[in-house]
Structures are given as structure tokens and as C-alpha cells.
Please model this.
Amino acid sequence: MNTSTSTPTPERILHRLDWQVIRRLDGLLQGDYRSLFRGFGVDFADLREYQPEDDIRYIDWNVSARMNTPYVRQYMEDREVIAWFLLDLSPSVDFGTLQNQKRNVLIDFVATLARLLTRHGNRVGAMMFGSAIQRTVPARSGRLQVLRIINDLLNQPRLNHSSMTDLGALLKGGLHSIKKRSLVFVVSDFISTPGWERTLNLLSQHHEVIAIRLWDPREMDLPDIGPIVMEDAETGEQLYVDTHDKKFRKRFREAAQQRELALNDSFKRAGVDVLPLSTEEDMIHAIVRFVMMRRQRKR
Model:
């Protein structure tokens, strides 16, 4: 991630990622960038009997019931991929250390994936969300498009505390605006008021959706550093706590674990794969682990 003391610019960020991340990914993935996602088509081609290695998401249940054996739909694969980044830029993404916040991880991930996709002639677009959708970058291809998205991310204002984020508004924006079947990356820490899960489910029925879950280890397990003032990143509400208290740290850890289980359950019910990105993990390792998981599932 970016730890340079110089002022970040789109060119500097992309140059750093080209050398430090994208070249390494090319080597590890052997240029197979399409393994980051399943590949999909928009045109129905045919039906055939299910084979053990087939993706169960393509089973046509109506035909399978009539024929009394599983059948899967086959699609004509689009040569061009259209990818959209739905980006949560609410106050909680500014959490992290001075060297690396979740916002930095978001920018690096978006720049990396946009670069990988546009190098092969695909189009990428972005919707940037704070308390509402603040900026939409129409889907285009080329290096200039990647620089445009990075520039817009760098120039998005950091929001003041107000009320809890409603992530459902971002997902609804994507659902209503993205017409052609696309690859959709929802990049967020998923700290939100309830209710977004249903819209994520609807979005995944129209597009191939991957959830990029931003997180920081300190959100999962409080360090023992004595009395501190904790502040809700979304609302600004403050609470004085003593982290020497083992019982308090245990309750905090248990609450974080419960939230983790609830999030994973929501993603599973929506049929959405999750790529967790930590502020303290090498992004390359996280991406390669995700790719290996998807490859194994297809076998």
C-alpha cells in the first residue's frame, strides 16, 4: 500500500501499482485475469444436461423438473466485459492507521482491477457514494479512464459525521443505473443500517457481483492500551472505555464475531462471493487466495 510521504497523484499511484502489484499479479495468475471472475454472457445459447463440474447457479430448475434430471443453461460469452465499481466512501472507510486507512485500500484495489480490465479492452465505470451517490463515472476503456477514476477518488471530500450509512442506497443506484449485464464490485466495509441485503440479492440476480469487504484488525479485536475514547465513525458518538478490562474486550470481540457471521450469511444468501481486504495484509495475497478459491470451486 502507499506509504510514500509525497503527495499522491493519479499518475504516481498507477505507476506504483503497475510496478509493485500488477506485475506480480501477472506472474502469479499467468496473465489469466479472467479467473478473477467466472466469465458470463448476455445471450442464452442452449440447454444441456448437468455435468459434475458445472456451476449450479446455471441450473434451469423449471426444465430440470420437467425432464426429471438437472439441466444447465449455456450462454454465448461476451468478448468484452463491462465492470462497475460501487464504492462506499462513507466516514467509516477513513478508519485505520495514519499510514493506511480503509480508503487507501479501496483506491489501490479499484486502480489495480480497473487497470487489469482496461488493458484488455474492457470498460470500467464507478459510482461513488457517501450519504448519497456523489459521482458517477460512465464506463469507458483505456488508461485515461483508470486515471480519471483515481483522480475522482482522491478528490472526493471526506464526509463529516451525520447518521449511519444506508448502503442500500448505493446498491439501488447500481440496480437502477446499470442496464447491461456487468461485473459489479461492491467495495465497502458494510457498516450500514439494515436492509441493504435484499437489494444486494436483487443486484446479484442481474449481474455478477463480488463483495470487496474492507476491514481493519482493530475493528475485530481491541488492543490492551488502557483508557481511551472510542468514536463511532458514522455518527461521531463518543464513548469512554477502559481497554484494560478483559470482560469489555471479550464483549467487543464477541460482538465483532457476531457481525462477521451475519455478514457472511447475508453474502451467502445473495449468492455473492466475498474478497476480504485488510489494511494490514498484502493485497496481492488476498486477491490470489480469492482466485484460487474460485478456481477450486469450478473443478
Notes: The two ends are 33 Å apart (CA to CA). The longest helix spans residues 246-269.
